[in-house]
């Protein structure tokens, strides 16, 4: 990790590292005026991925420097991938910098919940990184579960076309809270003793393009993907059932604690009120738990239904091709097509010969 002067044009802003729903134009104007007056800002944070610099923290400072006509900006350079830069950006500005809006907080949490790996972290881990309460994270996670359940059982037919599966990213450990933040006020910073220009970058370098989606997939492959999706949904529902059970157990312990001190006259009324509140909480949690169990049973039934259809389809295909379990279906299909083509050709040839025969001998008779 080092601090150096880097050209603004060498910094990439298009990697999805912006963790704000919108930038504050007033803050950019204020920062730009301070840049022109000679004020010094703390360095922005960029991640160097081979020959590419990804901006992770300091979008307002970068925009203000560009507006002020600067060519270079002080930057703290860290070695890492685009994925590292995104994770750092999510944790930036949680306590300092331009005040975050509710939309900014939801975007930061969504960037973790929408990720195949980061979404597996606990609510408390995500809340520590994003600087919100774990209840805020839990509510957003429940919104996604409700949306998935609605789409699975209501709006999406079994044969609806699917999106290509997203490849799982390389594992990344959950970072500890307390990452460097963007400052709220641009206090003057001392001149670094050895601040040099960053090494030049090759701007023609680009990340490797994602592989193009495959052409139309056969029905068998579509059924396999559908089964994988349902398995993932079942796993997600089971995790949420576990969290709900933990909340129910905590509420039950609180009720039992209040029952134990009901004999104290001076705390009787307070404990009765607390007991009623916790009883209602336990009832609500129990209702939610029952609903999740019903949804889980529906998902399991849905998976079994498609598994039976898949097995039946495969059995009919193998019976038609006269193949056994473990045989190469592709080769069997090609052989069947070749046989059919030969039969058709032979039939056409026989028909032609018969017509010639009838033409010759029919006229003679």
UniProtKB/TrEMBL annotation:
Which InterPro entries did the record assign?
Answer: ParB/Sulfiredoxin_sf, ParB_N
Q: From which organism does this entry originate? A: Mesoterricola sediminis
Tell me where the transmembrane regions lie: none
Its name, as the record gives it, is ParB-like N-terminal domain-containing protein
Entry keyword annotation includes Coiled coil: yes
Bias (Pro residues) ranges: 163-176
- Where would one find coiled-coil regions in this protein? 220-254
Q: Alphabetically list the UniProt keywords.
A: Coiled coil
